[in-house]
Amino acid sequence: MNLKFIVSVTLAASALFQSLPAYAQTSSAPAIAAPKAAQRNATPALWVVRDDDTTIYLFGTFHFLPEGLNWNTGAVKSGFESADSLKLEIANLAADTPAIRSIMTEQGQLPQGQSLYDGLSDRQARELQRIISESGIAADSITKLRPWLASIILSVSLYQKLGLNPGNGADQTLDGLARARGIPVEGFETGAEQMQFFASRPADQQRAMLLSTLKEWDESKSMLDQMLAAWSRGDARKIGTMMSDGLRAQPELAAVLLTDRNRRWADWIEGRMAKPGTVFVAVGAGHLAGRDSVQAFLNKKGLKANRVPNPVSNQPVTHQGR
To answer: Can you tell me the distance from the alpha carbon of 114 to that of 38, in angstroms, rounded to the nearest whole number?
Structure first.
């Protein structure tokens, strides 16, 4: 069983999910306002690569976060505030939304007469029907989508129902803070490029994405708790293990979402080390964990990424979703 697929994909490429809120809005009754979240502390992991005149921080983000989680403190805050530029997976996502929507329209729709249910067993079809009902998304809308896009939209709806919000995510927070400071914000990729990672998958890989979403729907809450807790205490080893478990059954997708991108990003960091200055690099935490992490590729280039001390939080953290 391909465990933890939803969570793994989210940490690998979910920055693009921030452009999909309208598609994941539920059609059921309005949600009841939750009580104000208690303030909790988190101490996520941070690394640094240095030479005589260049400093590059590597920060692993969680793209969706609950309210009330204080993570921009300590070494993370100090490192970010010392930087003269910010490098994200995606910068200025709003401007890229039209291109993303174009891909969704042109490559995310099934041909007329086909349905998302096609090829599913009776049991799988019942499970899909239940999940669509729980998501609150109109069935006649999502069943016309190709499996890759339906899987992403269902996952977004699940995150929202669990009280996780991209607006609270580390990426958007850092983006806003950097622009308020007036420092340059650049992206490794565009939102359209990230969307294309999924849209270009062969039909069998797209079907595997959908089946993994169906299998893991009910257990995703506890998986998210585990992943968020690991991120909050800076446990990169745990994150790496969960990422590996989640993508092991789909090595082609793992190469596209993780390995190939980590290699390219390490190449960029190597080149950037030739210029003076301080850069704060913030990408999904899954890219900075495991044997094919950005740090692993840097090490092959003779660049050592050192862990920056950031005291471990003694507070258990969960998303406290409804």
So the answer is: 47
What is the model's pLDDT at position 245? 62
Whole-angstrom distance, CA of residue 200 vs CA of residue 116: 17
Q: Which amino acid is at 117?
A: Y
Under 8 Å between Cβ of 210 and 150:
yes
Mutual angle of helices 147-161 and 122-135, in 10-degree steps: 50
b/e string for 166-181 if b means 16 or more Cβ within 10 A? bebbbbbbbbebbeee
Give 236-258 pLDDT, tens digit per residue. 999 888 776 666 667 787 888 88
**Exposed/middle/buried for residue 117 (C-beta within 10 Å: 0-12, 13-18, 19+):** exposed
Residue 61 has pLDDT above 50, yes or no: yes
Closest to 171 in 3D by CA, of 321, 17, 298: 17
pLDDT at residue 319 in the model: 41
pTM: 0.86
Alpha-carbon Rg for the chain, nearest whole angstrom, is 19
pLDDT at 322: 35
